[in-house]
Amino acid sequence: MTSSKPIKIRGPSHCAGCKEEIKHGQSLLALDKQWHVSCFKCQTCSVILTGEYISKDGIPYCESDYHSQFGIKCETCDRYISGRVLEVSGSK
Ligand SMILES: [Zn+2]
Ligand SMILES: [Zn+2]
Fold first, then answer.
1. Could you say which DSSP state residue 39 is in?
2. How far is the CA of 11 from the centre of ligand 1 (A)?
3. Residue 3 CA, ligand 1 centroid: distance in Å
4. What band does 89 get if pLDDT is binned at 50, 70 and 90?
5. How far does the centroid of ligand 1 lie from the alpha carbon of residue 36, in Å?
6. What is the reported pTM?
């Protein structure tokens, strides 16, 4: 499997979602950034992503929104062709 899960970390930083300082409590490290746990949400439906997520261009989405926006449906069975797409970090 190639899905991603946020990693829980601690320590002062700035949230990539709301840009506020993360003072204490739990934050997430995802997409190479830190987020308040409550700020790491699907860009489309705002569901808080505590488990699996899919990112595109550094923006997190829940699985169903990712598929509905970027997924490819099988013409025959009308199911999304699976293939969790992970963000490919280009030039680093
Ligand atoms: Zn935040
Ligand atoms: Zn969503």
1. T
2. 14
3. 23
4. low
5. 4
6. 0.65
